[in-house]
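A reminder from the course coordinator: this example appears on the midterm review sheet, so study it carefully.

Given structure:
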């Protein structure tokens, strides 16, 4: 039976508009549509993992509004255990304003709302949960103190900790990063992390994502799985690095592609797949997600990913 996954993170309602191009600073563009789509990095990863057959629970906060019920219903519909998602009176549910251009690229503004209440105090109240799960998934759309507490608490319990170091509006210190099992940045987040930890490094390894990931993994003593968009992904332990080629697809919307990759990677590991198998599985899942619009609406089923993984 698959090992159990606890996702600690954000729940947002995504307000998505499509436009011919993303607006430049000071520019107004005309949108073609407006959709309300369940999102939030934490919720995206929970839904994606559940749809891929994993046993998933979510720990997080929502506000006192209509969005809260819609987000929880969507999680339940995907098979996520939602009993540990708690409401907050007088606070809005988190939201994200997303503009998607004709190439499928996006720009995102996140309003934390109730996600700010998924803080260290809230996690301490629910810390007994941590002992019941094998994998702990974290992102950076909840307060940094909560993420740090979760890492310290679960590292002490010997759990497998997967940290998606996104969004890059906040940064964890090196001591905490060294306690995670897998760090999963994209190529931009990887470059920023490298620059922060090696500020005097004149090489900067400009554009060499494989070597930057290897050097970081070696310094931190952890494993890093960096996503490279169409170029695929790299897994390194600081000594050995493997590049997993991307799949050529027609990109419609990149929203939640990284969340899909993370969830698929962990779901695959939890089901007993090896790391190389999990990386290939995650690449296949993300390749499907970018061919569809929206966050949770783009996430594929286990049957779809299995078919893509085994036949292409």
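Designed residues:
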């Amino acid at each position: 039976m698959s090992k159990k996954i606890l996702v600690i993170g954000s729940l947002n309602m995504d307000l998505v508009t499509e436009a011919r191009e993303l607006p430049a600073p000071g520019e107004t563009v005309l949108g073609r549509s407006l959709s309300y789509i369940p999102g939030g990095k934490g919720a995206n990863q929970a839904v994606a993992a559940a749809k891929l057959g994993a046993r998933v629970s979510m720990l997080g906060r929502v506000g006192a509004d209509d969005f809260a019920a819609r987000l929880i219903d969507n999680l339940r519909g995907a098979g996520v255990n939602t009993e540990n998602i708690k409401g907050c009176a007088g606070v809005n549910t988190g939201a994200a304003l997303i503009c998607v251009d004709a190439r499928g690229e996006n720009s995102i503004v996140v309003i934390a709302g109730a996600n700010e209440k998924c803080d260290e105090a809230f996690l301490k109240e629910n810390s007994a949960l941590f002992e019941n799960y094998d994998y702990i998934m974290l992102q950076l759309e909840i307060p940094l103190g909560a993420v740090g507490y979760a890492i310290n608490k679960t590292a002490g319990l010997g759990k497998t900790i997967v940290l998606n170091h996104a969004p890059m509006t906040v940064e964890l210190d090196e001591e905490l990063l060294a306690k995670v099992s897998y760090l999963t940045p994209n190529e931009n987040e990887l470059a920023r992390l490298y620059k922060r930890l090696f500020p005097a490094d004149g090489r900067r390894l400009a554009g060499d994502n494989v070597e930057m990931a290897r050097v970081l993994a070696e310094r931190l003593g952890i494993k890093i799985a960096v996503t490279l968009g169409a170029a695929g992904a790299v897994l390194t332990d600081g000594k050995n690095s493997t590049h997993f080629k991307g799949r050529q697809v027609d990109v419609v919307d990149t929203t939640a592609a990284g969340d899909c990759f993370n969830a698929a990677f962990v779901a695959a590991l939890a089901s007993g797949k090896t790391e190389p198998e999990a990386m290939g599985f995650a690449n296949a899942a993300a390749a499907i997600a970018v061919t569809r619009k929206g966050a949770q609406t783009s996430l594929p089923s286990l049957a779809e990913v299995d078919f893509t993984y085994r036949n292409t």
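The domain at 4-10+40-91+115-311 is CATH 3.40.1190.20 (UDP-N-acetylmuramoyl-L-alanine:D-glutamate ligase). The chain is about 35% helix and 25% strand.
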